[in-house]
From TrEMBL:
Record-stated family: Belongs to the tRNA pseudouridine synthase TruA family.
Name of the featured protein: Pseudouridine synthase I TruA alpha/beta domain-containing protein
Location in the cell: Nucleus
Gene Ontology MF terms: pseudouridine synthase activity; RNA binding
Superkingdom, natural source: Eukaryota
Signal peptide: none
Active-site residues annotated for this sequence: D107 (nucleophile)
Biased composition (Pro residues): 1-11
GO biological process: mRNA processing; mRNA pseudouridine synthesis; tRNA pseudouridine synthesis
Length: 567
């Protein structure tokens, strides 16, 4: 009888394989996600697919998307997710492993009041939002998160994006901050324009902008008028004969150093923005304390326009008015001789550091101006080829065709004494610099730098023209909309809207985004300096349609002459 084969030794009990690199349901569990007391079973948390709502101020960041060697919003957020325990060590710096996606990719210096990102994270134990905010800078704020379906992707499921661009009202005034050619052309006419002294000094303090050395002042150094031919930005300095204007600016403190080039590109950290060279302007918790200047109360505010004072600004208005009156009484400015001179004469505020200088103007954003601006913006609505409104995208590329749902500018908000027109654009998606270029061309048309017919020409596929790009500081992402997703999953999942975080988002805008936009205009004149570049010397395509008409007429005359010779 054959002996039976020896029995195999018993196998040791195998422990379940745990992996943080999510391939199975067990891989979503983290056995060491939370501390446990002696005698208690070890807690296991699972990864959950969630959509995170956040806002940020883009100052000091090189955009939203992660970029090696650059400080980005996404880079800081990924690190905060790891430090908060939402991402395991094995997935640190590898966003694809937890299905990372963003709804919008904002450019350098652009802010967001309602950005949405998605991924698979450890949301337990409770308190993830507080842990994330503890590891983020003050200018990035996580509002909350919501559970979504496993197939959700913040980029693909976002139907529409709404952006807001705050453009100062004076930017739409053709007489405000004129270029050099406009000033020279107006000399001797009834509508003579004044040279912009404040922008001359602002530009001189920014290295490389005007070719002037940093720290120069009116009293120390005057610019030779002959050298203005080489100045890229059409700002004007004092001549020897302008002694009366120079006396008005004797006490104008120009600062002791140059402004960093990155600061001129709106890349300054919010901490630096609220502390360096701002005088009495500072940000406190929940409200803004503004400096008492002549611009504290907007002049000639149109009563018919829809003006939205930003929350706590309404409560401070009476105080601003009293302080502004006191400032005017103590000002060393001589009274203007007439209303026309008052409109053109520089009004220097006697503030703490004297950096604010404004020009009084009779221009206001009334019904006529609002109707015209909205008519100009309506040219963008619909499906068009926007290859002229971006970079590195050819007209033949299908991605150049974009659908704009709406574009209007019906409301005016007042921030730190500056009136801003609120331009709201809603579209399916946007390309690099697209919104800033759309605003840039619309402002050029409003200022009569370009004909309105150029709007249709710029949207043609077979035409290549150079379109001005507005500064990035006034642009922010207002909301990401998920209409189709909310309709499809309304019975099983929460709706992805900002309704639950509306108050937090508004408070964040008041505390960081709005003050940053206003302070950049007060300190550096981001929009004011840009306006001086809107001329046909820098943008020859402003006269594109006129040139084409002349060429067509010349060709027609040549054909007619040839026909006569044949006869």
């Amino acid at each position: 009888m054959a002996s039976s084969p020896p029995s195999s030794p018993p196998h040791p009990s195998k422990k379940p394989k745990m992996s943080s690199s999510a391939t199975t349901s067990d891989a979503d569990e983290d056995p060491s996600s939370a501390p446990f007391a002696a005698g208690e079973p070890r807690r296991r948390y699972k990864r959950r697919k969630v959509a995170i709502f956040l806002g940020y101020c883009g100052a000091g960041y090189q955009g939203m998307q992660k970029n090696p060697g650059a400080r980005t919003i996404e880079g800081d957020l990924e690190e905060a997710l790891f430090l908060a325990g939402a991402v395991p060590e094995a997935d640190r710096g590898l966003p694809r492993r937890y299905d990372w996606a963003r709804s919008a990719r904002t450019d350098k210096g652009v802010s967001a009041a309602a950005q949405v990102v998605s991924g698979r994270f450890y949301v337990d134990p409770p308190g993830l939002v507080a842990r994330l905010n503890a590891h983020l800078s003050d200018q990035i704020r996580v509002f909350g998160f919501k559970r979504v379906t496993n197939s959700f992707n913040a980029k693909k499921f976002c139907d529409r994006r709404r952006y807001v661009y705050l453009i100062p009202v004076f930017a739409l005034d053709p007489s405000a901050h004129p270029d050099r050619e406009a000033v020279m052309a107006s000399m001797g006419s009834d509508n003579e324009l004044a040279r912009c002294l404040e922008c001359s000094e602002r530009g001189r303090k920014i290295p490389g902008l005007m070719g002037r050395w940093a720290g120069s002042s009116i009293a120390e150094k005057r610019v030779d008028p002959a050298a203005d031919e080489t100045v890229a930005v059409a700002c004007f300095s004092l001549e020897e004969s302008d002694k009366s204007e120079a006396n008005k600016l004797e006490n104008f403190d120009l600062g002791s150093g140059g402004v960093d080039e990155e600061q001129h590109d709106s890349s300054t950290m919010i901490g630096e923005t609220t502390s360096a060279n701002m005088g009495a302007n500072e940000v406190e918790t929940g409200k803004l304390v503004s400096a008492a200047t002549d611009a504290a109360v907007p002049a000639n505010m149109n009563p018919d326009a829809t003006v939205e004072p930003v929350a706590s600004y309404v409560e401070e208005y009476d105080k601003f008015s009293n302080e502004a009156t006191t400032t005017k009484e103590n000002s060393t400015m001589e009274p203007s001789a007439s209303l026309e001179n008052q409109r053109l004469e520089p009004m220097v505020a006697d503030g703490t550091n004297g950096e604010q200088a404004t020009v009084k103007s009779k221009f206001c954003y009334g019904d006529e101006q609002r109707e015209r601006f909205n008519r100009i913006l309506k040219n963008y609505v619909g499906t068009h080829n926007f290859h002229n409104f971006t970079t590195r995208t050819k007209a033949e590329d299908p991605s150049a065709r974009r659908y704009i749902i709406s574009f209007d500018a019906n409301r005016v908000v007042c921030i730190e004494g500056i009136e801003f027109v609120k331009c709201e654009v809603v579209g399916q998606s946007f390309m690099l610099h697209q919104i800033r270029k759309m605003i840039g061309l619309a402002v050029a048309v409003m200022r009569n730098c370009a004909p309105e017919s150029l709007m249709d020409v710029a949207l043609k596929k077979d035409v290549n023209i150079n379109v001005p790009t507005a500064p990035e500081v006034g642009l922010y992402l207002d909301e990401c909309l998920f209409t189709s997703y909310n309709q499809k999953w309304k019975d099983s999942h929460e709706a992805l809207t900002m309704e639950a975080y509306a108050e937090e988002a508004e408070e964040f805008k008041m505390k960081y985004i709005y003050p940053h936009i206003a302070s950049m205009e007060h300190k550096e004149g981001a929009v004011a300096l840009w306006l001086h570049s809107l001329n046909q010397r820098n943008y020859p395509d402003f006269c594109f349609t006129e040139t084409n008409i002349e060429c067509a007429s010349a060709s027609k005359d040549q054909v007619d002459n040839s026909g006569e010779q044949l006869l």
